[in-house]
Amino acid sequence: MASDNTSHALPAPPSPSRTFYRRTLPSSLTSFSSIEGKEIFASAMSTGGTSAFFSLIEQLQTQPEPAYCGLTTLVIILNALAVDPRRKWKGPWRWYEESMLNCCIDLDVAKETGITFSTFACLARCQGLDVHAVHGSDSTVEEFRQVVKQTCSHQKIPSSFLVISYTRKVLGQTGTGHFSPIGAYDEASDNVLILDTARFKYGPHWVPLELVFDALLPEDPDTGKSRGYVVLSFDGKNDVISKPDSFRSCNSLLPLSVLFGSHQNDSLRKEFKHFLDRLMPDNISLSSVISFWTKDRTNDNYVWELVQPQLQPVDSVEVNMVNSLRRLLKGLIANESSDVPSTLLLSRQWMNVNNSIKSEAGGPCCSPSPRNSSVRTLEISPGEAMYIVYLASLTKEKRKSIVHEDGTDVKMKIGVDDTVREQLLAEAALVSYAIETCDWDV
Length: 442
Description:
- The protein is an alpha+beta fold.
- The protein is about 35% helix and about 15% strand.
- It has helices spanning about 35-45, 55-60, 70-80, 105-115, 115-125, 140-150, 210-215, 265-280, 285-295, 315-335, 350, 380-395, 395-405, 420-435; strands at about 30, 90, 95, 130-135, 160-165, 175-185, 190-195, 205-210, 220, 225, 230-235, 250, 260, 305-310.
- α2 crosses α3 (about 70-80) and α12 (about 380-395) crosses α14.
- The longest helix is centred in the C-terminal third of the chain and has 19 residues, at about 315-335.
- It is elongated, with a radius of gyration of 24 Å.
C-alpha cells in the first residue's frame, strides 16, 4: 500500500486578496504606443535620438518576478551588448537569463526584496561590463541630459546603454524603487523613453527628462543614499561620461566562476576584510582563514554564508574543468593537510545526510543550510571552499606561486594543465573582488 505523504506537503501560499491588470499612466507621461507617443518617437528618429532603441527593443522582456526589475534590466543590457554568458541556457544555447546573475546576491532574497543601486553595479561588473555609476545626488540635471544624449544619440553602433534606478512615486506611478533601461531621447520635447521591465504594470512610456532626474534624487531607505544612473558598456571604450571623477569605474572584465555563486552579505564580507586587515598580509595563513570561516570550529558550514556552490555543469567542457579544479584543489590541500581537518573535506551532500558526525569542537559536523541542500549543486566540500577563500586573501603574486606550484619538481606537480590553474586563480580573484569591494560607495 502506498504511503500517504499528504501530511508532509507544504501548505499552498495564500492567494492575494486583490489582483490587478496593469495600471493607467499618469497624465504627465506619454504611452509609447499612443498617437502622441508615436509622434515623439518620429521626432526622436529624425534627430538621431534612437540609436540605442533598436538593440534594446530586440531584447526587451517582462521581468519574471515582481521584484526582479534590476535583474531583468541587466539581462536586457547583457543580451543587447551580445555578451556571451559562457554557460548553457536551454538545449545547446548560451543566453543570459536572471538565474545566472548570482555572483553578488542570493536570488531568493532578490526575489523578495529586489536589489540596490550598488548591488546592480556589482552584478554588472561581475559579468564583465564596464560600469560607470552616478548617484543622482552627485549629479545635475544638465550632466544627466548630456549622458542621455550621448548614450541615445551619439552612437552609430551602440556600445553602451543607460540604466536608471528611480523612485516611481515622483513620476506619479504606484510602487517605489525601480530599474529600467533608457531607450531613446527626443530633444525637441526633452523627453526620454523608459523601457519599463514591469510591462504587466506599465508599457514603455515617454517622460520629461527633468522629471526623470527628479526621480533619481529620493533616498533609498535600504542604503541611505539616493538612487542614480548607470552607463554600461562591454568593449572598454566608453567615453560617454564627461566627469570621470564623479563615479567609480571598473574595467576588470572579471571571469565567470564555475564553482561558486555568491550571497549578498556585505556585512560578513566587511567583517572578514577587517579580520584580514588586522592580521596583515604576512600573517595570513590557511589555519587562520579556517578559524574565521568555522567560527573556531563551532560551525563548519559558515563559509556557505559567503559563497554557494554552482549548479552541476551540463556542458562536457565545464564538467571536465570542474573535475580538474577539484583534483587540483585536493592536491594543494594535501600539501597543507595539517591545517585542514578531515571533516571539512566531506562533500556537502554527504554531510547533510550524516549530520550526526561530531566536529572536533563537539558540535554537529554539519548544520545544513536550506539554501545549500539541493543535489543539483556541486558536491564541493567546505574545506575546498575555504581554501579558495584563503587564496583570495593572499597577494596576487603569492596566490600565483602556490597555484602554479613554483619551486616544485615538474614530476611532482599535480597533473592538471595550466588552463585549470588559471581558472583556479580566477575563482580566487572573484572572491577577492567581492571582499575588496564590499564597502565601496559606487
